[in-house]
Amino acid sequence: MVQLKTFTEEEVAKHNKEGDLWVVIDSKVYDLSRFADLHPGGSGVLYAPSIAGQDATKAFFGLHRHEVLLRPQYTRLQIGTIKDQEEVIKPLASDAVSEVPYAEPSFLSKGYYSPYYIESHRRFQKAVRKFMTEVVYPEAVKCEENGKRISQEVVDKLCEMNIFAMRLGKGKHLKGLTLMGGIVTPEEFDHFHELIINFEIGRMGTRGFVDGLLAGGVIGLPPIINFGNPELQAKIIPEVLSGKKYICLAITEAFAGSDVAGLQTTAVRDGDSWVINGTKKWITNGMFADYFTVGCKTDKGLTVIFVPRDENVETKTIRTAYSSTAGTAYVTFSNVRVPLSYTLGPVNKGLSVILSNFNHERWMMCGTSLSAQRRIVEECLKWSSQRVVFGKPLNAQAVIRAKLANMIARVESAQNWLEMVTHQMNNMSYNEQSDKLAGPIGLLKQFITRTGRETAEDATQIFGGRGVTAAGMGKLVENYHRTSPYDAILGGAEDVLGDLGVRQAMKKMPKNARL
Ligand code: HEM
């Protein structure tokens, strides 16, 4: 390693003009003489008397994210450090938690206790955070921007840790698998471990990639696990869990969304086969899926059928407000023929197969969505303390503090509700969950997505123009503001879910309840 020189502030101050320009940022001396003309913010700003040859730390952090300084092309600009000064602003270690108040769920905050999380969860969280930071995050940023699907290399690493399998929850599909390099056993793995994965995914702030990260499989594979015939299960489950094949769920159509009973894709029996015709819309991961779990109209109801991609299956990209890394597709089935043995669950009773998936999907979205919302709270707390306006930090303004108070209260209340529901899931049988949790999960998802949009609005106001700029300081806020409506639609529209919650409560009203 090259030993960096040390300089005094007086020495740095002499380099304060075009062709000979140094600045100090957080005790580090940068030679910007040649970079000035390439600086995205222009060269003029760098020659200002308060910047050229001076300590520009405050100005720098009012305009750039710390990550700018960590990019290899910019770290090279550092020529030394200031004598007897030490850097204060350091990047977090890849497994570290943020110390910004409310940036993490309270079980991760120093000195706080939790009734739900035990040592196994904390160990697991540390390992998942490290893996996500080192392996997945760089890929997330790249794919979110270029719109390409997740690379096979990263999928292979995810599958080696069995992260994809864990995202399906606890159960028989985990049997015999080594989870996160053996840090938890399949028997020990519970819905809090799973919640941790969802939180680590959501906090990346790359909403399109969150779905590109095989979300289609999280909802497309369970019908095979729960309703497929043994031969189909033996072939498809290992292929998908090992990342060799991709699967998605194809239910929604241009004709029917939340109104599943209105589907128009048909499956007609012909000897030992189904012949499938129709179209599906908004199919997450459809662009790169090898397999489709398809909701079809049959003679007396709905039937769910497993369909491998062949020349009669066509997928076209749907351009949406989030990144096309999610692989959102319009799918056309033209006389697709599959064996009757590919039927998932009872013929004409597919609605129960579809509904059986919903609670888990919605609960998963509560986790990723709330985590994204919490990340925005962290962004706002940081920004409002480092941004100086009218000579004071932004958080010296009462109106900003009032917005922060509401944001914090929203994530903390949703977190506590979500953890309570997760605790119930850990203790209830599947049937008890269907009976008792469909309503609360619907209401909780409505609460998280609605408050998410309020937080997106508040955050955009706090960040100003940066909140609508896709790169730089406000990039996470911009991404969140643009994409938070997704969570209010996918997995059941917000209003429909709120209504479901209330209808479930009405069903359970005691017959003798009177004021
Ligand atoms: C090592 C030193 C510096 C590097 C590597 C650097 C790099 C960059 C980069 C990459 C951007 C594009 C936006 C982003 O990605 O955040 C930018 C924008 C900018 N920079 Fe710098 N910069 C440096 C120092 C400074 C300093 C000392 C100032 C002080 C005035 C400054 C003022 C600006 C301004 C005004 C913008 C435009 C910000 C905006 O559009 O919101 N930069 N800089």
UniProtKB/TrEMBL annotation:
GO process terms (BP): fatty acid beta-oxidation using acyl-CoA dehydrogenase
An example molecular function term from Gene Ontology annotations: flavin adenine dinucleotide binding
Span of domain Cytochrome b5 heme-binding: 4-83
Pfam families the record matches: Acyl-CoA_dh_1, Acyl-CoA_dh_M, Acyl-CoA_dh_N, Cyt-b5
Cofactor(s) the record lists: FAD
Gene Ontology terms: cellular component: cytoplasm
Record's keyword terms, sorted: FAD, Flavoprotein, Oxidoreductase
Similarity annotation: Belongs to the acyl-CoA dehydrogenase family.
Protein's UniProt name: Cytochrome b5 heme-binding domain-containing protein
